[in-house]
Amino acid sequence: MVSLSFSSPRVTTRTTVVMAMLVAMSVVLERFSFGTTWLQIGPGIFATLLMAYYLGPWLGAVAAAIADQLSTILSGGPNFLGFTLSAALAVMIYGIFLHEQPVTVWRILLATILVVGIVYTVLNTLWVVMLGASWNTILIPRAIKELATLPIQAGLAYVTLKAVAQIKPHLA
């Protein structure tokens, strides 16, 4: 049976500093994304995973929303709150499965499938369509890209979080 976590750590100075560092990490990593506006690939998954793992679903979602808004402001691009909602939901889903839970292949795979399926494929495609793209034109390429990157994301998530889980006791 998979147990889920719907809690976040207490807001302390330490938690706030960790949150700020992860927000900064997310903003920096998002600068290395490449691709078209509706089909991007980037290393931002690492910040998303760490926010979920350390901050839980609620504080992680707040951190992801702040990071998304800061990235938008710093890039000078147009602000669309749908993508901010997607960033927060992705961290929330990962946080429910990963915060204060053992790192297992099945837990990470299930969380990644939910995030990729619901947030990245459906919601982000909906936001791009709302911004003027044609649903028929972008759905198939985006779905193929998400299916292709799903095992890569799950594998990177597993390796990253296993390493983080080993050093976490030494950070306290």
Automatic annotation (TrEMBL):
Domain of life of the native organism = Bacteria
Could you tell me one molecular function GO term of this UniProt entry? transmembrane transporter activity
Which parts of the chain span the membrane according to its record?
Answer: 12-29, 41-67, 79-97, 109-135
Stretch forming the signal peptide? none
**InterPro entries per the record?**
ECF_S_folate_fam, ECF_trnsprt_substrate-spec
Transcription as a keyword? no
Q: Which UniProt keywords apply?
A: Membrane, Transmembrane, Transmembrane helix
> What is the name attached to this protein's record?
Folate family ECF transporter S component
User: What organism is the protein native to?
Assistant: Lacticaseibacillus nasuensis JCM 17158
